[in-house]
Fold this sequence. Notes:
mainly alpha; 18 helices; 2 strands; 63% helix
Amino acid sequence: MRDAVDAFVRNSPSRFAITVFAGLILITTLLLALPIARSGAGTGGTPLYDALFTAVSTICVTGLTVVDMATHWSPFGNAVIFIGMNIGGVGVLTLASILGLVISRRLGLRAKLMAASDSNPSRIHVGPVAERQAVRLGEVGGLLVTVAVSTLAIEAVIMIGMIPSVLARGFDFGTSVWYSAYYSVSAFTNTGFAPNPLGPVAFFDDYWFQSLMILAVFLGSLGFPVIFALARSWRTPRRWGVHVKLTLTTTLILLVAGAITFLILEYNNPKTYGAYGLGKTLYEALFMSTMTRSGGFSTIDMSDLYGSSLLVTDMLMFVGGGSASTAGGIKVTTLAVLFLAAFAEARGAPSMQAFGRRIPRDILRLSVSVVLWGATIVAVSTVTIAQITKAPLDFVLFDVISGFATCGLSTGLTESLPPEGKYVMAATMFMGRVGTVTLAAALAASQRRQLFKRPEERPIVG
C-alpha cells in the first residue's frame, strides 16, 4: 500500500493533494455529524448538510457559518473545529507534501516541484532560473518546518496577548484561555470563526484585542514563503526575492487603499461608522480593510454597508492574500503581475519588470488563467444561488465571493440558504481553497509534449 501511495504522490502530487483535502473534509463531516459533537442532551446529531458545510468552511478556513458557532457545538465539536482550522491553515499542497513525506519516507522531485510551486509566484524551472525563486527546491524541507514552527509560535504569542482582554470582559481564566486560543487560531488561519455569542463585537472598544487580530490576520495572509524569507534575512531587504517584495508591496497598497476607501464611503452611514468620531472610524476602516483580505471578522453588520462599499469589499475579497498563505482569493501576486503586464504594454516594453528583475511571460498566462477560472467559478455559483434563493444580486455576489475567496464575511444570506444552496456554497469554498490552477492540473488526464509549432496568426484584440 505504501508503494502504491508513493507512486501516486510521484505521478500526480496535485491529485494527491486534493484527495487528502477531500478526505479531511469527509472525516470532519462525519465527526461533526455525531450526536456527541452537538451541545444539548437528546438533541441528536447535526444534519448532514450543516455538518458538511461547517467541515468545508473549517478545513478551507473560510469562516462562513450556517449554525451558531458559539452555542451549537459541544466541547467535542469545538475541538474538532479547532484542530480542523489548524490543519486547513497550513495549505493544501504543504499538507499533502508532509503526508507524502511521512508515507513514502522521501519526497520525490515532482512532489518537491509542487510544494515549491505552491510557494512561489511562478512555475519552477530546473537550472539557473531556479536560483531566483522565493524558495529553492533544496529548501522545501525548510519551508515545511517553517510552516509548523511559525504557525505554533505566532498563534501562541497572539493567544497570550489576548488573555488579559478576555479576562477584562468578566470571563474566568479557563474560558479566557480557550477564547484566546480559539481567536488566535481563527485569526492567523484567516478563518473568522468566533467562540463567543457576540463575536468580535464584544471587543469593539478594545483596541489592543482588535490590533492583535489585525496582526494575526496580516501575518497569516502574507504566506509562508514570505515569512520564511523574512525570518532568514529580515535585516537585509536587498536579499528578498521578487515574490517577497511584490507580496509586501501589493498587500500594503491594498490595505491602505481599502481603509481610505471605507473611510470615504462609510463615514456618514449611521448604521456603520457614521455615529463615531474620526479616530474610531479610521481605525475600524483599517480593521475592515484587513478582514476583507480573508480574515472574516466583522464588528458591523455587512448588510448595513452601502452598495458601493459592498462592491469594494467584493473586489478586495476576490484578490485575497499572498500565495501559499492561509488567505484565499486569486492572490496579490496575481494582481501585481496583471498590472505589471498592463504597465509594460503601455510603455511598449518587451517584458515585465519589477525590482530590477524580469518576470517570464508564462507567469502572465498563469495569472490570466487564475483570474479567468476564479471569475468563472464565482459567476456560475452566483447564478445558481441567485436562482435558488431569489435573493438580491449584491448580497448573493458578496457571499459567493466571500466563499470562493475563503474570507468568511457574510450579509446573512448564507445562514438562510436551503440545503441545496449550502451544497453549492460548499463546492465554491472547496474550489476556492484548493486553487483553480491545482484543480485544473489535477483534472488533466495527462501532460502532452507537443513536438511541433503551428503557424502563428494574430487575432484582433480590443
